[in-house]
Amino acid sequence: MVLNIENAPENFWEETKNADCWIFGDTLEHLKDPWSILKLIRENISHKGSVVACIPNAQHWSLQAKLSIGDFRYEASGLLDKTHLRWFTRQTIIEMLDQSGFQIEAGMPRIFNEPSREMFLPIIEQMARAAGADPQVAVTDALPLQYVIRAAPK
Predict the structure, then answer these.
(1) Quick check: is 93 in a domain?
(2) Does residue 39 contact residue 9 with C-beta atoms inside 8 Å?
């Protein structure tokens, strides 16, 4: 079955009521209201079910570098994919799932070899310190291109 989950008919939710796993591979950021969809899933998911998602990281160092020079241009793919409607960081991913009735059971950052990042990380550390935030957390959160998580109903 192929459908826009944001326009799914009521019978869709009845038919999928006891699904064990909902997989969102690079899709939550394309939804108008991923919070509502996750809440609907939470209302209908099996008590042993889970949500697995891969979500791009808007805090990635490359995006911070582009923003620092006003370069926020949509692209054909990647972090600035022109079809993205939502942007998430590690912190806002946790909040979205929590607000939707889920808790993260497992997760991993997807970090790639990007040698050019080394010149930007000290700057990100300085910005975090100036903003009164933990600089080590800011640098750590700037590394992943994406987060892969598994969340279960609370």
Answers:
(1) yes
(2) no
